[in-house]
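(Protein data)
===
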Amino acid sequence: MHCSDGQEWGHAARLNCVQSYGAIKNHNSRPGEMMKKIAATPCSKRDKPARQTGLRSLSMLAAAMMLAALSAPLHAQIKPKVALSSNVGQPVYVGWEKLAEGAKAKTGGRVDFALFAGLQLGGELEAAEKIKLGAIEAGSITSSVFASWIPDVEVIDLPFLFRDEDHLLASYPLLREKLAPKFDAQGFHLLGFTMAGPRHLVSRFPIRTIDDVKGKKMRVLQNPIHVATWKLLGANPTPLPAPEIYNAMQTGVIDYFDFVKSSYYSLKFYEVGKYFTNTGHINALFTWVVSNAYWRRLSAADRQAIDQLAAELAGPTHKASVAYDDEALLKAVALGTQVYTVTDKEPWRKRMEPVWSNFIGSNAERRALVDSIQKVK
């Protein structure tokens, strides 16, 4: 099973019967008053017909309450849940807020998503499994989490596949077109992708050239592509859970690692790794998915509306993520981080070509996918 940083950090549907009671609150019978009368009447004065009438009235009232509860519209009682690793206010959360607002408006309230931020519904792998089963209706999850079901999604993790953030943004429609059928076959409707952030190098020593990492201990994700990439460069890859990075850097268990800018700042990694090398070698993406179990219950018009909203929000969310990342790094610089930007990435990319070859192998479909991505302008 492949892991992501989102996984490492970190369906109880409740029926609301208030509306059901409201449906019968104007019923002529008043159970409270009825019970008071019955309780106040001595047993010796309660005749059999009166007792039977009272019991029949209570039975009818209970039956009416149950019927109203069962007949209440399901969509009015249960909101489809969205699992997010992003926190409130972060770009992907804001993107989903806009999608939820738009979906509610365009479907007349039939689709009213409830957002759960910061891994409230479980880690990313757990959330993905629940979405697949239909226990959670939707979510945005790091792309590598899906690799055990959809191996071709690992194309996103190929080092230096995307020239820059603009190339990545322009590639979203192609990625969705090519990968959507594979997601569908595994129980997911693919809405699209947005940037989680390019990965950059964080180190206890300056990294200026590709040879600077030789012999150094690097924390990597437990992912074959990530491990193979840094082995090629002569580093010693060391898989570690994300929560252990800070102490490992502080004690010298590892010499460097890669992470996104925003988390570098928010997790205070600048305290143990003051050197930041801007490489953008691998792009982490959030995959926006809906459970097929839920998606197929929607009307064609509602599905089309949600797909269109997701496509329209991909660009603004991507740009907001870029700005959010850059702002975070500036905050770290103000606290002493030293930044070096690799301007010529070609030597790095050339050295990592064998990783591409191993991923593609003799798979013509994968070769066509990689070639198509490279041709995107």
